[in-house]
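Batch 3, record 17
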Amino acid sequence: MTAPERNAGATEHPSTGQLSAHSASAATARAADVLLEARRIGKRFGGLQALDGVSITVRRGEIYGLIGPNGAGKTTLFNCLTGLYSHDAGEFRFDGAALDTGSPDRVARSGIARTFQNIRLFGAMSVLDNVMVGRHSRTRGGVFGAILRTAGTRAEESAIRNRALDLLGYVGLQERADEQARTLPYGDQRRLEIARALATDPQLLALDEPAAGMNAAETNALRALIERIRADGVTVLLIEHDVKLVMGLCDRVAVLDFGVRIAEDVPAVIQRNAEVIRAYLGAGDD
Amino acid sequence: MSEPGLSPISADRASAGAASAGPAGVGPAGAVGRRLRVSAWVIALLILPLVVDATAGRAWVRILDVSLIFALLAMGLNVVVGFAGLLDLGYIAFFAVGAYAYALLASPQFDLHLSFILLLPLGAAAAALFGVMLGAPTLKLRGDYLAIVTLGFGEIIRIFLNNLNRPVNITNGPFGITRIDPLSIGSFSLAQPHTLFGITIAPIHAYYYVLLACVAASMVICRRLQFSRIGRAWVAIREDEVAARAMGINTRNLKLLAFAIGATFGGVAGGLFAAVQGFVSPESFTLYDSIMVLCMVVLGGMGHIRGVVLGAFVLTALPELLRLTGSLQRTWFGHVWIDPADLRMLLFGLALVLMMRWRPAGIWPAPHGRVGT
Amino acid sequence: MDIFLQQVINGLVLGSVYALVALGYTMVYGILGLINFAHGDVVMVGAFTGLALLKALLAAGTGLPIALAGAALGAVLACGLLGVAIERIAYRPLRHAPRLAPLITAIGVSILIQYVAAILWSKQYLALPAAFTPATWQIGGASVTDLQVLIVLLAGVLMAALLWLIHGTKLGCAMRATEQNAEVAGLMGINTNRVIAATFLIGSALAALAGIMVLLYYGVAHYFMGFMLGLKAFTAAVLGGIGSVPGAMLGGLMLGLIESLASGYIGDFTGGVFGSNYRDVFAFIVLILVLVLRPAGLLGKAQGERA
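Prediction for the assembled complex:
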């Protein structure tokens, strides 16, 4: 299931984003199908080995958790994957081919979208415009089309707008479409970031601590949203500090400690893993 | 796997049928009101030079013409600074490229007299080329390097214009190029008065109408760019470059595009300037002219097209008003303490500092939610 | 006369001045990530205050060495205060503003200083009192003046002192910590505001002395002199690796040599098509080349992208 394929056909206008019938069964059928593979990724910052031969395997259709004490290298791995940092060793494979992590925009076009730990919205733009920006890489309107307002450009523009409105509805922000992004409450900003990321038609959605700073109700809503995103056919890679959330939500979990992956398994096994318990107790869980 | 998904995640409904739900949902009553307002503006702008000529004198019509040229410049710089958030401190260099391209190819300097229909696009292209040459190595680096590179480029262009009079005389050095051809098509020249419906239109008025048309067209172009896929990407880059890249935007190419479009505006404005003035010299393209255009954008409101056009008018008229302070100083103190030209620069510097501190969105900020400012 | 040797000597003198000014750019850039466009104009203020003091002291009958020392001291004090004031008034309130705001403010401050100087002093070139006739020595076919030797020696001493200050004192340690990560430095009990103010103070004091050197070397001061000088010094800082103190020193010397040799030989190389009136172009060409070929500069660390 690749991005262009998914884009083909479908011209219906759904009132809400419902679980698409095919996705759940597809996820089961392809449970063993690998979407993303990190192979022995290494990254050094001066004297600090931030990542030391980290390998993870994310299967298509799963929610994959990445946990570890503070400074374990989770966000560094995210940044290497999404092209913000260049890694010194190893390679990423995505959707059956080597992933070019040379620049973040290329990674996004390959089908990996991300959110940021310290929310990075386009603060002065409207909520709707933020999501519309997410459509950039999947549309092609140029300067001359814009100046001449050609029929093609206008059609594309309204398609962008409608898609963005649908995505806002999907995350429950349709009422706030015209507000300035920076004026949104914290929890809404997190959800807007997810909508913006989804607008790039990702196969893999990478969420960097999406529940940070959320209260219990917001966290529950987020959890439901993530499950729905997965059910709709997008694989989710999740960094999270809230261990309870990760264990309840993720199909499989990897644990990083001091830049080394010390475990990768289903939550039930991870919870009993002696090394993981030691890492968390030793470093002090926060 | 291509079943039509029902969720917005898996469906890209690029249907043209939805175009009706597009922006600008203006009702019939609103449309009439809008049409009335636009007509009022058009009429007011058309009779403005005649009123100014009759009341304030012909010198002020000339100032109006210059204001319009600076409005073009301010709109171009606004694309770079206001939309894309890149600081260009040598913007006047592109104005110079356009002006000299026109002056050299339509004057007795080389005895070439090409038509402005050919020369305006040529000057624009030359300016855009310089923009790309300057931007390509710089824009992939930290944004603030662009500020210093453009600052240097602005001076370098002037050094070349000043010195390329020997060993081969190209630019005529500090003396500049005179007797530049006016705008003309065939035998119809704007440098002669023309009679239309019994009204005689002086060249200075004719130029006003030509420039007004250019400014109006540019405002439409800028507006369309702003509310397009490209314009959104520019503002996204300005707001957060890292996030913009993570959204799949090739920031380097888009910044280069903004820079080239800004330069193009500068080139066109330069060509018109040369034609209207009939004379260009390096003196019109100093650092202070760059700063003045920057002030127009900052004061008018970065990213707000109407704001920067207003800024251009106010700041072009300012020296004329400041000239009054010279005679005031003379009557009050017996002599001029502060040269009005220096006072102007002093005010520009002060304005930049104070605006950034207290009113970063400008005197006339963009309306909320519609423009990304 | 040996043209090559002569141009090398001239280049070293010029380069020493560039290096002193480049230090101010590089230190501020290292800590705030800001191009302080007003820094070149601080040099100009140094030259003007130095000139005014020198004239006053000489008129009062003071001997030349003491008058020079007094003028230098006065210029250092004036510029140090000016630098700290610029930071406090113009830059500090914008520390968390969008990145364009401090840049625009910086260029505004630069213009402001230039025109205040033009109004306070003059828009004309102001010349040194005629008392200055430096002694000249001949070395291997080139001539060296005592002033040139003084400039290079003084610049060397100042740079050595700065290196000691950065690596050998508590303040220097705090400066390096703030440069690494201002937030963490603040958490560790470092008063980052004071460190930043100290950075501006030191940079501006060096700029003042550079201003006096330029004044003595060329014999004139002008309200616009800081512009090109600042541009070149910034180029020197980029050449050496922006943020690197030894880099600024190396970059300054190299740029001085490149400019001096290039403007000395350009006439020969181009068969007289281009003359030394293009000397200001070389720094710009160097800037573009460095940005294309080695954006991190000679001694700079490759810039680690930050999320």
